[in-house]
Specification:
The chain is mainly beta and 143 residues long. It is built from 2 helices and 11 strands. The strands form 4 sheets. Strands 1-2-3 form a 3-stranded antiparallel beta sheet. The chain binds zinc ion.
Length: 143
């Protein structure tokens, strides 16, 4: 005789060992957008001013981090390993050919107020005589 209901007998084993408890149905029930704890994945985080707090592992983190978590700080270094940041001035360390320009950007050219961007050419800048340019950080030196 074929035994039916085998699956039903197996099913209880598949219930998560620690099933999450339902959220409080009190006055906070509408607050469902709180992020899980990044440290222990607890769902019972609560807000404390500008911070989120996890009651289970005591981890605290700020709302700003949560909101901007997809935005990573760019780390761009010059040819000598110096950290560059927006607004820095740099010097070109190698003649750089420019598409469509009759002359290269000469070694020693000073470039003010750079802006770091993502990508292969990671510096946005403006060079006298050339206009808006994108440079590779490996060809510049922090001034
Ligand atoms: Zn936690």
């Amino acid at each position: 005789m074929i035994e039916l209901g085998v699956r039903e007998r197996v099913a209880p084993d598949r219930v998560p060992y620690l099933a999450p408890l339902p959220r409080s149905t009190g006055k906070d029930a509408t607050v469902t957008t709180l992020p899980k704890c990044p440290a222990c994945s607890s769902e019972y985080t609560y807000e404390d001013g500008e911070m989120f707090v996890c009651p289970e592992c005591a981890h605290e983190w700020s709302r700003q981090v949560e909101a901007g978590s997809t935005e990573q700080a760019l780390v761009v270094r010059d040819a000598f390993g110096n950290l560059l940041s927006d607004g820095d001035s740099v010097t070109i360390i190698k003649d750089l050919k420019v598409k469509g320009a009759s002359a290269p950007i000469k070694v020693g050219t000073r470039v003010k107020n750079i802006r770091l961007v993502e990508g292969d050419h990671d510096i946005d800048c403006r060079i006298d005589g050339f206009g808006a340019m994108q440079l590779k950080s490996e060809f510049v030196k922090k001034a």
